[in-house]
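Before anything else, study the sequence and fold tokens given here and see whether the fold suits the sequence. Record follows:
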Amino acid sequence: MSTKATKKASVKSPCVNLCLLNDDDVCVGCYRTGKEISSWGRMSAEEQRHVLVKVSEREQASQFVS
């Protein structure tokens, strides 16, 4: 396995197979935007980790997390 493939494999997608975008274009399952979801496979590991930070912030700000 190449180094690039190894780095990519180390960032797990936040997808929980509950795919529904709200009015803000954010998935109610994984808290990624539609653009982030569609771009995930083409992102570098660093870009994916940056998205995961934003996902965590969105999740904490949501009404579904206490």
Notes: Helices lie at 3-9, 34-39, 45-61. The chain has a mean pLDDT of 87. Residues 8 and 45 are 5 Å apart (CA to CA).
